[in-house]
Task: structure prediction
Amino acid sequence: MTAPSLDASAVTAFVKDATAAPSLLNAQPWTFRFRRDDGTLELYADPDRALPKTDPHGRGLRLGCGAALFNLRVAATAAGWQPETRLLPDTSDPTLLARTEFTRTAHPDEALALLHAAIGRRHTSRYPFREDDIPADLKDALCEAADLEGARLVFPDTWHVQSILHLVHDAEEDEARDPDVLGETERWTRTEPAGEPRPSDGIPAEAFGPRQSGASSPVRDFAVGRPVPGRDWAHFETRPHIALLGTESDQPLDWLRAGQALERVLLRATSGGLVASLVSQPLERPELRWAVRDPESEMGHVQMVIRLGYGPEGPATPRRPVAEVLDIV
Result:
């Protein structure tokens, strides 16, 4: 069966799964274009959903788009297709991030296909986690997931975890003094109670999690000083499990690869019973980002800090309808 046999209904299902990916402030900075004539599906960055103050170089945007691309690959593979993706296929159009072709296969990548069930279950959890240790074999599986996508995942030692916590605190203090960053955060976060009309993007109040008593866990407070009715305080884990995801170099191609690796790690973690939240505060400050890197690893550039553990699943955050992000031509 040739690639043009892929029909619009299948593409719509793939894109729906793709858009379940995490993105900075849940801005969902992606669009897709399906070309009927050759059966290719293109992924574009959406400049209107960029975060110029929080993410001036577009690194976070491309991480989110890479995560969406990975979900797309998983969905297609689970449906019996073999996706072949080329990253940054057109140097004249920097918004075109990937082009994917599809062929039918009787032997899909089983490891990818098995992750499909986790797409709908993966939600960021900003709630307290238990103090339970993560088994060594599960940590190894997460490191292997990153490696399969051309990235590296390391679990820093206790000393470096504490250093990262201090860097997160420093980054939050910097943000609190930056009205432009605060304004961007407020634009994409919602403090209205559940049930009131809301946009199909951004982070709703119920996904903020409780306010943290102390500063033992690197969980971002998206309320940024605004009142949130009904929001409680809670003690978080005192020994957070932190993983660093990184790449050898630090170019747009690396950011797309890191986004795919990030989502593969998150889906594998979900399959293993873990929940996670993402920690990007110090990575958004160039003067702090270098210090996040684990000095004992060979990782060149940290692309994301991941908090992992056992605890309550976070609530689902809104997603734009597929019709808004998919163009069929």
Summary: The chain has a mean pLDDT of 95. DSSP finds ten helices and eleven strands in the chain. The two ends are 21 Å apart (CA to CA). The CA atoms of residues 12 and 323 lie 8 Å apart.
